[in-house]
Each structure stands twice: as structure tokens, then as C-alpha cells.
Amino acid sequence: MVLSYEIRRSSRRKNVTITVERDRAVVVHAPVGVPEAKLRQLVDSKRQWLFEKLGDVQKYQPSPHAPGKELVNGESTLYLGRTYRIELVDVSDGSVRFTGKFMIPRSRASERKRVLREWYMARAKEKILPRVKLHAKNLGVSYEQAKITDSRFRWGSCTPGNNLNFNWRLIKAPMFAIDYVIVHELAHLIEANHTPRFWNVVSAQLPAMDRARDWLREHGQSLEDEV
Fold it and tell me: pTM for this one?
């Protein structure tokens, strides 16, 4: 049986790993310079394991909510790296509730995208901003102000005035990816450009840097969602 796979190379990666994505795509993550023949041998050595993973019906199902689609009852959305179902419910309280799933009042169904976005914004302020303070302390740097913003093109930014901005959509990402963006922006307070020194600062703080970058690259299209 033919086994198709995609090779994704990174200058920051030190080891070769193979992942099976939710859409059953096999991805080989490799450092720059590793011969393709060696990668093919590695994939061949893992064929049985890969076909077992590809046959797991429960785990590798297509995502029920394509980016950009209008959210409807029974569909799903990301929060902290995991996908949760959305349900419209009959309640007197007009706020969004999260109990392992998103419950949006049926009375606000017509504005569900806005109310869910407001919920995300509140959670981003609650969870991201304290971690900015924590990582700043670990790095020994200070900043003027950290804010949750509505940029549609960047996960985060560091301004010339030492202000930090973080996209509210970042709350959709797993915590290791959130930490990467935070440390990335804080590292600009030490080194303005993406020099080897800059990347040394980031990688020293975050052993999972490559994993975080891969996740954000894969899910970057979610920046264009309304929610």
C-alpha cells in the first residue's frame, strides 16, 4: 500500500519526528539538511505504526468546523488547543458558559459569533496577561504595558515603546504555543531582530519551541476567522 507523506523542514529543529494529523495527513518534521532518502527510510521503518494510526477512526476524524464557516448548533471551535462542541441552549442568563462544551443562549443565536468572541477576549485577558508577567520575570525584562488586541495578521507584537500586544485568537492555541508567542515578544526586549542570539534566548526558555511554531503555522488560518 502506498504511504504518502509531507516533509516540513526547519532550521530550528534538531530531531526528525513523524506525526499523523487529524485529517490523516502524515507529516515528517525534519532539520534542514537531512537527506530525503534517509527520511524515506525512516518512514518505511514506521509503516506498520503509521498504518495503525491512520486506521484509528476515533482519533483521526476531519475537523467538524472548517475555518470561516458560520458557527451553528452542534459544531465546534478551538479553546486552548482542543476542539469543543457548541450548543445553543435555553437559559435565562444571556452569557456564554463553558463546561467541556460551549453553551450559547438560544436567545442570542443571531449574535453568537460576537458573544463567543467576547468570551474569548475575557479568557485571553485572564490567562495570557498573567503569563506575560511570569515570563518577563523569568527573562529579567520589563515592559510598559501588555494588551489583548484584535490583530488579524499577527499572533503578537512588541512596539518600539516596549508595549506588548497579543491577538485574542491566541487563546485558541495550546498553552505551550501561547508561551512561545509570549516569550518570542519578550525576547525582542533583549534583541530587536531575529538574530542567533534572539533564537537562543527563546529556545533556552522554551524546549517546545519547534512544536509551538509548527502548531501556529498549521493553524495560522484561524486568524482570519470571525471567532
Answer: 0.65
